[in-house]
Design goal:
The structure is a homotetramer. Chain A is an alpha+beta fold. Chain A has 17 helices and 25 strands. Strand 25 of chain A pairs parallel with strand 3 of chain C.
């Protein structure tokens, strides 16, 4: 999971991008980068760590120009490498280009193999470099045509922003798996912003225009904003997990307000999994909106029973021996007065391995609870994500091999209830506001509705195993094996 | 404001102290330090910044021994200096001693002047160094008697821990202004922990024993825990602001659970300041418990309308020019769906200068609210604190010179309501649980009750101007003027 | 100017490379890098600064494998960029390859333009990336054939080392402009070392085998050392400036001991530019050997009149205002007792802009010298180097526009004498030892002798303007304009 | 060993001190510090490492004022602690004072014990803190009288500078063991500089005035320079080792030019230890002047046979296993052409443990020498220094337990010769220039001559064991045992 951001046409493009990346920091803390263009030349700075660590005044001063793109990258299992930080920026036959990308290509190894056969060299393991190579070998005349050409060859999920000396481009895959939206700065008519989530817009005094549509390429240039849809979108497959966990609650993605959706999850969860209790608490912070919905629906009192530490986020030098593995206790601590002698419902957004839930249940019981009922505001997570969320393998997902009863036993809760798949889908759809046509129109719009066949517009592969795009492994699988140490 | 911590008798004393300081990080982010004792010799490490920045594995390995004390220090107006970091550790006639101190002495400049006249030199501006000098010039035979002697000379607020080669001492001033409590590790009978707040106890698998009583000195040594009360306590003057803002909601200080007290503030606030509204939201995170109490009492729906960024806490390189002064927007962002066309009540714990409240009101209004009613879960803050909380001068406290109406106008809310002084006191007292006598007894216990004359047991000087201890300025006032740069 | 290094077949390849780069540190202090191979995979670490700053134990531990190459890079006018640090390491169709390169290609922009036209992308401004691309597009079957193919297309000066999963290759351009030599570790029969200068050999307990010959590619693999000469060398054009200034005095390059050559320069200089004087001093450290030769030949007493600070080498935060521009005084300070009332000869290796010489002359005169005679152990430097030495432009070279008399006036010396061009050439040739045929033979050997036409085997372009290879600018000149900030 | 520096009356006092400390960097690389005074207040910055690492522009800007003192500290066996960095700066009864100190007190533990008994606390292990305490308990009225009072109580070697809000003081112990001298800046009449060595004077455009005399206190204030000699000096005991090794060759200390003295050592050494040889080389850099004197006297050719790396000086991450212990080879490398088949004399300034000499002899022999004769330009070092030079214990000094023959055997040289004690003394005295009375007079001057009894004016304890001042251990010896980690 990553976050992308772009500013077009503002004299403080790099500074606004810095703020924007900060607001998207929840989408990735491993590395951050900004590329700017002053109309003639690109400048780039990338580094490991959070935005406030990577950028110092010295670098900000040198990131000149009115156009900028930025990226925050999530820490993935493959190890954290500066080499994989984004944006990537290169010289090629048509000048310079920088790209920042959120998502995962499913045929990148295959493309990589083909490109290498034709003489390409690879300096990173990132999918982004594959896209850059495809751009470079495209015979098309304009950057937008080259990008369309390149994107016609890749499969998978992507929301990306490109920067050349004079233009900015934003593109979203044909399923619209990862979010991407457009805003306009209040300070000027031709000043645009592109971001993974609109949460950043109020911070930089911009207003939401519309989402980039699945399959669309948006071109920002001297001539204003232009929309291309090289290939019509097939069927919307927006990632439903963005609404459950990943996106910020103050974001509205493809017309669905995340906070509302989460409250709806909680309401449905309360209806589907009734239990007598004295108090309902959230696993903060992502579980809070669902918990409030749960409390409203059930009439059970909402309390702040688990306090989250503000001072977590960077690497914690874990003490040795006997005090190891305190993990969740460093992040959460219980308010005993809330739990003492109470029947407690605790709401979380999902269960991955089960180990964290088990610790939370134990923590609440140790704090004096008589009963601990765990409620999950999504269905059991059974399948890994291939489209940009860093989930563990199937083996590690407890729900892929355990029944709800077995999970309940493992996490030692008195009862365990998940949200049903149907309620999850209906809850998101119920939160969708009618999306007014924007004055910045696109050729194709995919509605947030079920189609005539009753098919919903979401990718729910992590729950259902129904992957909209298959993963292609090349004949002889090979990844970037070069190590930066 | 600072936090102190101590571990006696555990093989991983430094590691537990590291965890403890991390849990007390909300009490100070400027500097952190740990001193350990291996029975023969003290070791010390201090540094600027948060606990996870100050301590690396290299230092932790060298902080050997079974006894340790630690300190986190709040950033004060005087500038952030390593010189002022704590613990202070020295050689003196009786060996070595380290001290960590939370609070403010009111006669430290006077004592300093007297000590300098007798030939003492000062290498920092901290009150702690004054206490160390008083210890050093005391003619008493044991460390505890020297500490008692030293503390008999100082006036003001303090909760402190001392470490010698073989003992640990914990002491609290005669009014009990700053909190301090004792726990016992579950891993061993003679393993004790001392901390500003008990929130840390569950983290390190310790159980709460009791609070250190006002005026008490607790001595931890080979012989176990021993209590001394050199001078009987006068009258309890626990800091009421700890319950309002400073302490963690999961802490129970002197028998009062902070979360409960805050909910009570909110309930009383709802009763005292009724207004029609569609939704009530908190200024996170400190305002949340009062807001939940407010919502319960008023029946108005509680929502998460302001989302707090997790990624703030360290110095943020503020962008220049047009995007300056985004302050509160970096920390908080609104969920427009919660506010749109709504009558909103927003609950905060206090108003200091009024500028932040003004920005929050504007943010909520910009997000679509029809009305914004501001409710404060404490009375107007009119006087600076002399006992260890870093408040601005009287001039800067808006309530010292403005009526509630004038403040309402300044912050641009539709209405403004504060909690009454009486309700604040009653709310805390109502949250006090009967404190069972501990098996680790103290000579004197000051109850959390009003006395026969109806006087409450709190320092409320920041609201009332009734300072329990006067500030003594020396004939010729002089502070440490030496600058570390 | 840069330094390259390689170890083949030693269990501590990275550690030996670390030592080797340290010994080559005089050839570049801007950045350093090491790539290792464990038989299956390459690992890489690069960073800005000196070797001891770039490599920490953490990195060294992860640079595993028995084969390694390394690079130190000189600070060039173009700015110091991590992006340009070497080695470069990539994935390509045939696996992985890393390259470290010393020298400058004269047709790199042309090649770059051609490669970009065919779809190549460039992520740095370095010539090395051009070579990697040429390797990648070569249709040849083996790494050595692909390297031969690539090198047949490049023009200019290069001494380079390549590393694949299983092989190491070392190559030198057909003129032999930059040095490169081979050694054998005493610890094992199939353990080889390749380095820009042999000075490192004694440090790592290796013995000198022979120089890599102009046009030769040396292949190190399981089968031992194999030599290829894809195209016969044309005419030796070894860089004469290596002997004058750049190489370490303890190195022997292509059979010529640098120390001996420098002493010969000094002897000839004394013969050619006689002057009465009391004492002769060197500009340390590069001028010392020539000064000793000068003193021996002239019979004038040698003294250490200028003391060099050991503590220079990293960026010095220059004080402001009145004490700016102390430049040379920070590096050198005079021994007044050597100069007082004396007629002084001071010997330096070259004059670039003349400003440093002027400061040195003033410093000696201020220290009490009656006369200051400046002697330069090389001819006037009139032309920039295109083959890897970072010289200023022609405009900045004082000798390109000033007569010796005018330079003498500018530097304020009482007299100024340069070494004649003929004596320079003869001095180097006189220092050449007969190069015994090595048991590790090469197909072609270019002797260090004048040919039948009396042409000497050196590149002397910086003195004569006779460039052996012309610089090719592409139809539309373009450099890497991407900025890392 | 340390270096001290002070500037009085210059608007860029801190910047000049930065330059001065850089020039004194050879006297200590462990830590550095500067304290400045702006007439009202002192400012201080200290840090671990070399001057260019410790001071960044941010700190330099905040070190305001026209008076400044600075210190560089040598790495001692006791470990490197920021706590022990100098200057020390404190508040005391009379305002503020900062002190920087070079030397070692012999009764500091005794004084410390006495001070602690009276109630003093110690925050470092440095002698400097003892002096500050003595100042603080002095009943005298002026700073200079308090300093005189304090210094009357200490025994041992010291050259120190003090800074108050308005004055600067410089003092030297009664034996004049450590050097200290005064200069005047050319930029203003009342602008003075004080430094351990005058080498810095030309760098900052100052001229030498005179040495501070043994037992003298020099007071710099608005009234200009004033000299006090509270107690008349007893007998000059200048450290002879400064001339042999420690001081820079461009310094003149107490009228003796270091370079001249070293050449005289070499001349005498050549006369006393004749041997047939082809070439004489120095161990750079400290051995070079003596070697030149040796070559002149013996007529044997001087060559640069050992090349010193410029890139040593900071901590070197030593590689593991087989390539450990390369120590001297990293620092020095041989020029084989100088040694091959030659009879070699190598001159060094001293032998401490013998291990380095042994490696150098082996290195020269490995480089092809037929014979290696080691000559040492001082007598055998048999006793540790108690007055500020960081020598090992007696046990580790090879000459304390081995005859010259045994040492010769240990270092594997063909012959070994030391300078005789008498020649050492005569060589220094012969280099003494008559010291003209300065216009900035002192009350007492100790000449650099033998007295009527033929006693020379040097401390030669490291050679003779004749310690001018006895080391006092307190009844119960105790050092600062507090560890900074």
């Amino acid at each position: 999971m990553c976050g992308v951001f772009g500013i077009y046409g503002h004299p403080e493009a790099a500074n606004l991008t810095y703020l924007g990346l900060h607001a998207l920091q929840h989408r990735g803390q491993e590395s951050a980068g900004i590329a700017t263009s002053d109309g003639k030349q690109l400048a780039l700075h990338r580094g490991m760590g959070q935005v406030i660590d990577v950028f110092q005044p010295r670098q900000m001063e040198r990131l000149t120009g009115t156009n900028a793109i930025g990226h925050v990258r999530y820490s993935t299992a493959g190890g954290s490498l500066l080499r994989n930080a984004q944006p990537i920026a290169v010289d090629y036959a048509h000048g310079q280009i920088a790209i920042a990308h959120n998502g995962n290509l499913t045929n990148s190894l295959l493309l990589r193999e083909q490109l290498e056969k034709s003489g390409s060299i690879f300096q990173s393991g990132s999918d982004t470099e594959v896209i850059v190579h495809l751009l470079a070998v495209s015979g098309q005349r304009t950057t937008e045509d080259r990008l369309a050409d390149a994107l016609s060859k890749v499969e998978g999920a992507f929301s990306l922003v490109c920067l050349t000396e004079t233009k900015m481009l934003a593109a979203r895959d044909r399923y619209g798996i990862r979010p991407l939206c457009i805003g306009r700065l209040k300070s000027g008519d031709r000043q645009f912003v592109v971001a993974s989530e609109p949460t950043v817009f109020s911070l930089i005094e911009a207003e939401f225009v519309r989402d980039v549509e699945p399959g669309e390429i948006v071109v920002l240039s001297d001539e204003g904003l232009r929309s291309i849809t090289p290939a019509p979108p097939i069927a919307s497959k927006r990632c439903v997990f963005e609404y459950i966990y990943f996106a910020r609650p103050d974001s509205t993605l493809d017309g669905v307000n995340v906070y509302e959706a989460r409250k709806n999850f909680g309401r449905a969860l309360a209806r589907e999994n009734r239990v007598e209790a004295d108090v309902v608490v959230a696993v903060p912070d992502s579980g809070v909106p669902a918990t409030i919905g749960f409390a409203e629906e059930s009439g059970i009192r909402y309390e702040v029973g688990l306090v989250r530490s503000h001072y977590i986020g960077r690497t914690f030098i874990e003490p040795q021996q006997s005090i190891r593995h305190f993990g969740v206790r460093l992040k959460l601590s219980p308010v005993p007065e809330v739990f003492r002698d109470k029947r407690v419902i605790v709401v979380d957004d999902s269960i991955v391995r089960g180990t964290t839930s088990r610790k939370i249940v134990k923590m609440i019981r140790d704090a004096g609870a008589k009963e601990v009922h765990l409620r999950i505001s999504s269905p059991p997570t059974r399948w890994p994500c291939y489209y940009g969320i860093d989930t563990p393998t199937r083996d590690e997902l407890i729900a892929s091999s355990h029944s709800v009863e077995a999970i309940n036993e493992f996490v030692t809760s008195d009862s365990l209830g998940y949200l049903s798949h149907e309620s999850m889908i209906e809850s998101v759809l119920a939160s969708a506001s009618p999306r007014e046509p924007s004055n910045v129109s696109s050729e194709h719009r995919l509605p947030m509705l079920k189609d005539e066949q009753g098919r919903h517009p979401f990718c729910d592969a992590c729950f259902s195993g129904n992957y909209p795009i298959q993963y292609k492994t090349p004949p002889r699988s090979r990844q970037m094996r070069l190590l930066d140490v």
